[in-house]
Each structure stands twice: as C-alpha cells, then as structure tokens.
Amino acid sequence: MMLKKWPVVFMIGIIMLVSVGWNSGISYAKYYYEYSWDQYKGTEIKTYRLTPVAGRAGFMDQEKAFAAISKTPNVYGKFSGYRTEKTTEFATKSVTDEVYKYAVVDFNTDKEPETVEYVNPNDGIPHTWNGTDEIRIFMRGSEAASLAELFYEGTPSEERYHFNADDVYLVAFWSSAAKPITGMSAEALVEEGPSTLINREWVAQIKDKDPAAYPQNGSLKGYFYIYKGSELKKD
Questions:
Q1: SS3 (DSSP) at 15
Q2: d(CA 128, CA 70)
Q3: Strands 114-117 and 135-140
Q4: Which range, of 41-50, 82-91, 192-201, 205-214, averages the lowest pLDDT?
Q5: What is the Cα–Cα distance from 189 to 170, expressed in whole angstroms?
Q6: Of 11, 26, 110, 155, which is the most buried if we count CB atoms within 10 A?
Q7: What is the pLDDT of residues 10-29, one digit of tens each?
Q8: Which residue intervals of 25-106 are DSSP H helices?
Q9: pLDDT at 3 over 70
C-alpha cells in the first residue's frame, strides 16, 4: 500500500522543491513596462466658438466710457483691440513658448482685422481707435465685470452681463452717432474641438513608468506628445 502511494509522495516533494527554487530565485526578478512618447514643441492652436453672453447691452456717457475703457488693458496687459464691425463666429488662441495670443477673423476681409490703440481715443490718428467705430477687445472676466458695473448703472442685476473672473471674453464697444453715449456687449469663448500644433519641431523622446504621465496624443505644458508604445523592462 505504501509503495503504491510513493509516486504521489515523490511528486509532491518535487513540486515543493520547485516551489522553493522559484521563491528563492526567479520571483525576485522585477519587471515593469516603460512607456515612451515623442515630444514636440511648436504653436498650439485652440479654437473657440463666440457665444453672446446672456443679458442686454449696457450704455454710458461717451466721455466717461472713454475714461473707463482707457484704464482697462486687454488680456496681454496692453491697450489695443480690433477695429471691426463683424467677426467670424470663431476665435483662436495660439501659444508658443508660453506666449499666447487671442485672435479673430474679420467677416468681410477674411483676415485678422486692424489692431488699434484705444487709450484716449483720438479721431484721425492712424492705428488709434476714433471712438465711434466698433472695437473688440479680449478681456479677462474680472476686467470686463468692473467695466460692466459702470455701464449698467441703474440696470437691474438680472438684466446685466455676468462674467466669470478667470475666463476670457471678446468685449465690444461702439458709440452712437446721434447721442453722446457708448455701448458695451460681450461674447464668451467656448472651446470647441481638440487643439492642434503647427510649426511642429521634435524635441526628444520621453520615457516614464506611468502610462498616464503624458497625453496619448495631445498637449501638456506647452509641448505636444505622440505615444510611441511600451517595452517590458527588468530591474
């Protein structure tokens, strides 16, 4: 009876020896996957749909309006805007080496409209807003809100434009030919579609153990990444 059981006992012993060998050897070898991306630099382009902000346009005395606008810089910290009566329905934001620019396209000329200075507008001076043509300015919500408070004096709160402080808006100003007043309206920038990268230039190949360290195919902190694959590595 014992002889019949011996092969079974022998096999159990072999399995135990193999198990001990495995635990003392191969199990200590550590493997991991290393993921890689091609890193590019260039100009990242984001597209936004221009959407009218809910509320009614605000108006104020022209002289007071000029004084208020001339103290409000655009998103670059400069005092310039686009002189245009109508734009396309889209705006773009381009970023190169963390330097960004918002732009629109003129509906009639199919190109970027003329940029004019709007500090203390004077009629007849080239590249300076004359105060009567429509001028559109990219402004932060916090700046636009401060101006709106002046333009909406005496207007019920629910009828005013409401701005998110950290968002960017395309704000338009125009003056009446019949009355000495200036109006204000605004459009929100709603991001539409994925960003693109133009003027692409390869920088390096980046590797990381974390598959989510960089985008699969997209932008992060001013660079564009294209996923190349993974490789099994041994410590």
A1: helix
A2: 12
A3: unpaired
A4: 192-201
A5: 7
A6: 155
A7: 344 444 444 444 444 455 56
A8: 62-69
A9: no
pLDDT in tens, 88-138: 999 999 988 888 899 999 999 999 999 999 988 876 777 888 888 899 999
Host H or E run for residue 212: none
User: What's the half-sphere exposure (Cβ side, CA atoms, 13 Å) at 208?
Assistant: 13
Tokens of 9: 């006992």
Q: Which two tokens stand for residue 100?
A: 């960004």
Tokens for 168, please give them. Answer: 């960017």
Interstrand relation of 223-234 and 217-220 (parallel, antiparallel or unpaired)? antiparallel
| Separation CA 158–CA 149 (nearest Å) | 13
Specify whether the CB–CB gap between 200 and 183 falls below 8 A. no
In angstroms, the CA 83 to CA 123 distance is 13
- Evaluate the CA torsion angle 74, 75, 80, 84 in order and state its sign: negative
Integer Cα distance of 161 and 57 in angstroms: 8
pLDDT at 6: 39
Residue 34 near residue 171, CB atoms below 8 Å? no
Question: Cα separation of 93 and 159, whole Å?
Answer: 30
Residue the block writes with tokens 């001028």: 135
pLDDT of residue 28: 58
Cα–Cα distance measured from residue 220 to residue 41, given in angstroms and rounded to the nearest whole number: 10
Helix, strand, coil abundance in the chain, percent, nearest 5:
20, 45, 35
Record the pTM: 0.75
